[in-house]
Amino acid sequence: MNRLFGSVRSRATLGATLVVAVALFVTGAAVLQALRSNLTAEAGTQAEGTARAVASELAARTPYDQLSGLGSKSGPVQVVDEDGNLVAASEDLQRISGTVTDQVEPRPSSPSPSASASPSQSAPAREDDDEDEDDEDEDEDEDTETPRSPSTPEDEESEPSLAPGETSRQTTFSSGAATMDDDTADYRFAAVDVQTHDRGLLTVSAGAPLAAEHSAVRTALTVMLIGFPLLAALVAGMTWVVTGRALRPVAGIREEMAAITASEDLKRRVPEPGTHDEIARLARTTNETLAALETSVERQRRFVADASHELRSPIASLRTQLEVAAAHPELLDLDGAVEDTVRLQHLAADLLLLARLDAGERPVDARVDLAALAREEAAGRTGVTVDAESAEVAGSRGQLARVLGNLLDNGRRHARETVSVSVRREGDWAVLAVADDGDGVAEADRERIFERFVRLDAARSRDDGGAGLGLAIARDVAVRHGGTLTAGAAPSGGALFELRLPLA
Length: 504
Fold this sequence. Notes:
five-stranded mixed sheet
């Protein structure tokens, strides 16, 4: 299990699948909620239309038994007076919940207009009626607000009292259930208040079925339960395939690196894909690293071989002299033996310094005056002139002295008569120049002479005691101090070496 989910391919597939699953779940929930809200609102609009139609008939003094909205084919309708009594209801209404009252049997509280007195009977009493209407007007002036319908929410603002024959602009919605003709279903109810002329304030509650809403939601939910897992599986499969194809070059790189490690053949390179993505850049960087490693290893091998060769000559010469001295003491060349021993000592010191530089040894952070250092190194050397201005740099005094000493030794080895040393400032740099009046260095060899164990005149250099490490050491020290060491042509025609270091 750990191996399975430890791969980038598995984690990418799992992550993409989880993101898609969460997105589908949130989207599905939002769609279902929007669908349910829209269909419920549509049912509410239908119920409100039925309620207002019945309210309009009541406002027009239509008797309860002649209301068109109470037919058996209509939805459940209730008419409730201001005392909460059911005065009219739909035919075949057996049970109801979610409205003002759960009553299903009407109990009229006042006679309908059809049962009232005839015009001839009511004519003599017209004056009384007028007086009653005046009294009613006075009562209405005293009471400025008609009692609210029981279905009106308490948190809504109070609506002004309705005039006779006027229907309330506010509609109260609710959800519930009703049983009609032994058929129970869920409904969306709308309640509307109407002020009648002779029956007071009535509340009409009408319902519209929610069967379409339930059916649509169930259908959408079924589609989602089937489609969403298939879509998530499709995304997982596509992610697995695409990720596998994208990571295929990585597998090739890994296999080739394993083969290079096993064979220790640094000449091999990993395959570079033809794409321009991160994997292609990784392959190119890997090959560049392998090339640098090959160069370093080859340089190390050549260094070991050259060091062995340089050590072999003085050791062989010293051994020969000692063997001759052992057999014939009178033939001992003491000066030659001492010279070979000193040569071995210098070579060992050079090799040790190069090893420390290759290991990344950082120079000591101290202030060194190059002018004073140049005068100290030139003292006691014949044919060396110094023209220096004070210039302080940060670094190791011993290593910088070694650089200057190697440059002076190289100059004296190839100069005809004189070697000149100068120190000057150039901006933020200190420049130490060593020039000789010898034959100079050919332009093609000006970089090659800084390689280790390189001699342009191998026979003469070996006779003079040089091993080809002086200039290599000098450049490595310059680089470690944040500077450069270059070779050029001197005005006198000889060689010119310029050491540039940042000023302290």
